[in-house]
Design a protein that fits this description.
10% of the residues lie in helices and 44% in strands. By secondary structure, the protein is mainly beta.
Length: 133
């Protein structure tokens, strides 16, 4: 069973930067893709960024393009989200998700592309990002 642990959330002022991390316990290298999602109070969870391991393709929802960067360290089995030029509307609980199945990866990437939710079997516990104006 793959497990995910997020970290790196903090409180920052608008214009600041943060780097989130998501460490995956995946001893058999089963994960095929990973993504970042976020949920603000009173709002639905939305996709932010995703990475396909095989192709290396990355996808971002429109609101974060040019500001956020998703990457991974293969050796550390860790996914990152570098967030720059943060805005108050980026305030949310950030979660990472993963899939071990190619078809579910297609759904994960599609969810991020439209800024929508994704039904993942594997979620981390979340890390809080708060951006003040």
């Amino acid at each position: 069973q793959v497990q995910l642990v997020e970290s790196g959330g903090d409180s920052v002022q608008a214009g600041g930067s943060l780097r989130l991390s998501c460490a995956a316990s995946d001893s058999n290298d089963r994960i095929k893709c990973m993504g970042w999602f976020r949920q603000a109070p009173g709002k639905e969870r939305e996709g932010v960024a995703a990475l396909s391991f095989g192709s290396g393709n990355t996808i971002y929802t429109d609101s974060v393009k040019g500001r956020f960067d998703i990457s991974r360290d293969n050796a550390k089995k860790t996914l990152y989200l570098q967030m720059n030029s943060l805005r108050p509307e980026d305030t949310a609980m950030y979660y990472c998700a993963a899939s071990t199945m190619p078809l579910r990866c297609r759904d994960l990437l599609a969810a991020v592309a439209r800024g929508g939710d994704y039904e993942s079997a594997v979620w981390g516990q979340g890390t809080q990002v708060t951006v003040s104006s």
